[in-house]
Amino acid sequence: MSRERRSFSPEFKLQMVKLYENGKPRNEIVREYDLTPSALGKWIKQHQSTGLFLHNDNLSDEEKEMKRLRKENQQLKMENDILKQAALIMGRR
Asked: Which residues cross the membrane (predicted)?
């Protein structure tokens, strides 16, 4: 049985992390708020590492650089394809 994907506000995530930090067991938080253990664990890890819950804020420098390079590579491929098409059109004249 699969669950429907839910989204939670940063305020809610922070509140769950604070409950855990104040001594409430993970399994009680998960059960009481109908969360998945992996989601709560991820929020705790994100809060401890950066204090933020956004995916891009939790990337390492290498991951950010890799993401930037992939985006740049995709842009250059598109530009290259456009230039090839233009060359074909100009060559027909």
From this structure: none
